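Homework help board

Subject: predicted structure for assignment chain

Our instructor gave us this sequence and asked us to write out the predicted structure in token form, then describe one feature. I got the tokens but I'm not sure how to describe them. Can anyone check?
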Amino acid sequence: MSEKIKHCSVKDARQAVYLDPKNQFLDVREKEEFDKIRIPNTIWIPLSKFEIEYLKLDKNFPVYIMCKVGQRSQIAAEFLASNGFNDLYVVDGGLKAWIEAAYAFVGDKNAI
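My token output:
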């Protein structure tokens, strides 16, 4: 694992993203998943299209990466680290942990 990649809790991710709008909150789940439930103000780039669309992200600011539980987030983080991103955070527990913490979301929580 790259030293550029750190792990954080949903609480830390929420605080970082809402306190500093330059921090990027990335959801790498697929369209069907994202359409059913999502976190407001996330950047959505599905892992299946990541190699092309990751260029939407800014290398100069931290990226907090979330999926359903964390596996795809780790893959995305490793890809970003190998492409020049230095400040990466995998959100432990992913969307499931976010919902369990009772943080804001849009959609059906039974869809996760």
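Reply (TA_rk): Your tokens look well-formed. For the description, you could write something like this. The chain has five helices and seven strands. That's the kind of observation they're looking for.
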